[in-house]
Amino acid sequence: MKFKVLLISEAKEDFKKLDGSQKKHILKKLIQLETNPFIGEPLGNKAGMDLTGYFKLYAYKKKIRIVYEIKESSLIIRIISIGKRENFTVYIQAFLRRNIK
């Protein structure tokens, strides 16, 4: 079963801000998600932000995080945020973007 990976517009902007080598690593992870959406770790309550139902995936020597959700019924993986963990930035972005379609 193959999933379709979709980036919300804000996540596309996150991706554009990365340098070439980081983009390469992120693309490899996104391709892996197509066939194995559960390779990431489930998120729960992160620094007071409820991200239950979302997953995190490490990339680029664990310096970059990909936050995503799985829509099993429609075989879609929605990428919500891509960024550094520093100061929980990637998680704050994901929390603020939860309801963006």
Question: Could you characterize the architecture of this molecule?
Answer:
By secondary structure, the protein is an alpha+beta fold. It has one domain (4-97): YaeB-like fold (2-Layer Sandwich), CATH 3.30.2310.20. Helices cover 33% and strands 33% of the residues. The protein contains 3 helices and 7 strands. The protein has a 5-stranded mixed sheet with strand order 1-7-6-5-2. Strands 3-4 form a two-stranded antiparallel ribbon. β5 (54-59) and β6 (64-71) form a beta hairpin. The protein is globular. It starts with a strand and ends with a helix. The mean pLDDT is 92.
Set down the secondary structure blueprint.
Blueprint: E1 4-7, H1 9-16, H2 20-35, E2 41-42, E3 45-46, E4 49-50, E5 54-59, E6 64-71, E7 76-84, H3 89-97
Parallel strand pairs: 1-7
Antiparallel strand pairs: 2-5, 3-4, 5-6, 6-7
Q: Main sheet: which strands, in order across?
A: 1-7-6-5-2
> How far is the first residue's CA from the last residue's CA?
24 Å
Q: What class would the helix/strand composition place it in?
A: alpha+beta
User: What ranges have pLDDT less than 50 throughout 5 or more consecutive residues?
Assistant: none
Shape: globular
Work out the strand percent: 25-35%
Mean pLDDT: 92
Number of domain units? 1
What sequence of helices (H) and strands (E) makes up the elements? EHHEEEEEEH
The CATH class turns out to be Alpha Beta
CATH topology: YaeB-like fold
SS elements, strand count:
7
Helix content: 25-40%
| CATH H-level homologous superfamily name | RelE-like
How many distinct helices?
Answer: 3
Q: From the 3D coordinates, which CATH architecture would you assign?
A: 2-Layer Sandwich
What's the gyration radius in Å? 12 Å
Q: Biggest β-sheet, characterized?
A: 5 strands, mixed
